[in-house]
Design brief:
Layout: E1 4-12, E2 18-27, E3 32-36, H1 43-51, E4 58-63, E5 66-67, E6 78-81, H2 93-103, H3 108-122, H4 137-149, E7 155-159, H5 167-184, E8 187-192, H6 195-201, E9 204-209, E10 212-217, H7 219-224, H8 229-234, E11 241-246, E12 251-254, E13 257-260, H9 262-265, H10 269-272, E14 276-281, E15 287-288, E16 294-306, E17 311-317, E18 320-326, E19 337-343, E20 348-351, E21 357-359
Parallel strand pairs: 3-8, 3-9, 6-7, 7-8
Antiparallel strand pairs: 1-2, 1-4, 4-5, 9-10, 11-14, 12-13, 14-20, 15-19, 16-17, 16-19, 17-18, 20-21
Helix pairs in contact: 2-3, 2-4, 3-4, 4-5
Length: 367
């Protein structure tokens, strides 16, 4: 039996706005689940329904097989870390971390022992006597996390906890959150709009759009086997390139190039003759030059971005544009003409109307 079960969960506000549609998910004990998607997609609302901070309009939420819809937040044994640190400014780090246990009337000696253990895990031992205003943003976020994990509840809920940090702090805190999860073994549900956070932290990712779940899977599966254009474009940095074109004679145009997609479509080639498809490929999947077993494309270089370990090359082919990711030693000149290859096995074809995947050689998950 799954630890947490969400069955056909819906959230409809009094004004009629339908924020979450038929959300279904089963979560095992100890899993790290990430809800990801653009602002307004329903991920934070779903998290708040799990926490008991929002009522569930329709559907059923189970904890260990027991219906929890009517339970209050405290009965659900969840701890939540918010986007804002929500620390008490007049309290020391020690008192902020201990606050929940103090409210429960836990013995002072037990509180002191638990706070020191939690502070050691979070690297806060030297800061226990300080007030929040004397801490950096990353340290404040660690205090907020410490206040949650000290309670040893069954589920940790994190709502965009790193969004107020700078880029360097986010990288550091990502690794710290992953380490905390390994040490505590707690079930964690984490909300973010940042696909990099989702890919680096999650056991499984739930991709949402407009209140609907688009796909659930491991980071590997979502990257290699997206079910539609939205997931394919949301997961991966830079995002997947998409070329929209109608199929004619089993081929589509890509600038002045003609790409034969009939073999990729297989038995569905006749079905899509004259219809629009979306031809997708990832920037990092290409090779410069003409490689065997690949489509060959001639394009002009519009812009290059040197990033150290790689270069992003912005190209144009007629009215079509794309981004290529190449070795920095192979960076082409701006305004030059290049030929690059897209391996057949790295091509994704989507229905132009539904935007669902229609042709792709599935990549098996890694164990």
């Amino acid at each position: 039996m799954s630890y947490l079960t969400l069955k056909d969960i819906n959230k409809i506000y009094p004004n009629g706005y339908h924020a979450v549609h038929n959300f279904n998910l089963e979560i095992d004990r100890g899993e790290f689940i990430v809800f990801v998607g653009p602002s307004g997609c329903g991920k934070s609302t779903t998290l708040r329904m799990i926490a008991g901070l929002e009522d569930i309009s329709n559907g059923e939420f189970l904890i260990n097989g027991v219906r929890a819809n009517e339970m209050g937040p405290r009965e659900r044994e969840v701890a939540m870390v918010f986007q804002s640190y929500a620390l008490y400014p007049q309290m020391t780090v020690f008192d902020n971390i201990a606050f929940g246990l103090t409210l429960q009337g836990v013995d002072e000696e037990v509180i002191e022992e638990k706070v020191k253990k939690t502070a050691a895990i979070l690297g806060l031992t030297d800061y226990l006597d300080r007030l929040p205003r004397a801490l950096s943003g990353g340290q404040r976020q660690r205090v907020a996390i410490g206040r949650a994990i000290i309670r040893r509840v069954g589920v940790f809920l994190m709502d965009e906890p790193l969004s107020n940090l700078d880029a360097k702090q986010r990288v550091t805190m990502r690794s710290e959150i992953a380490q905390i999860h390994r040490e505590t073994g707690a079930t964690t549900i984490y909300v973010t709009h940042d696909q990099t956070e989702a890919m680096t932290l999650a056991d499984r990712i739930v991709v949402m759009k407009d209140g609907y779940v688009q796909q659930v899977g491991t980071p590997y599966d979502l990257y290699h086997n997206p079910v539609n254009v939205f997931v394919a474009g949301f997961i991966g940095e830079p995002p997947m390139n998409f070329i929209r074109a109608a199929v004619k004679g089993g081929k589509i145009p890509f600038g002045s190039n003609t790409l034969d997609v009939a073999a990729r479509l297989g038995e569905r080639a006749k079905e899509y003759e004259g219809r629009e498809i979306v031809f997708g490929f990832r920037p990092e999947a290409i090779e410069l030059g003409q490689a065997a077993g690949a489509y060959h494309v001639t394009a002009g270089v519009e812009l290059t971005e040197m990033l150290g370990d790689n270069t992003n090359v912005y190209i144009t082919a007629g009215e079509d544009k794309a981004i290529l990711k190449v070795d920095p030693h192979d960076t082409p000149e701006i305004d030059s003409e290049i030929v690059f290859s897209i391996p057949f096995g790295e091509v994704y074809l989507f229905d132009g109307e539904t935007e669902n995947i229609i042709a792709r050689e599935p990549v098996q998950s890694v164990k």
